[in-house]
Amino acid sequence: MIRTVAITQDLYVKEDVPLDHLSDPSIKWFWVDLASPSEEEAKVLETFFNFHPLAIEDCLHLLQRPKLDYYEGYSFLVLHYLNSNTLDVEEVDVFIGENYLVTFHFKPVLSIETVRQRLLQHPSGFNKGVSYIAYAVLDQLVDDYFPIVYEIEDKLNEIESRDAKKSIALLMNDVFDIRSDLLKLRKTILPMRDLLYRIINSERLHIPAEQKAYFNDIYDHLIKLTSMVEANRDMTSDMRDNYLSLNANRMNSIMMTLTIISSIFIPLTFVVGLYGMNFDHMPELHWHYGYYIVLGIMALMTIGMVLWFKRKGWFNVNK
Question: Does 267 map to a domain?
Answer without folding.
Answer: yes
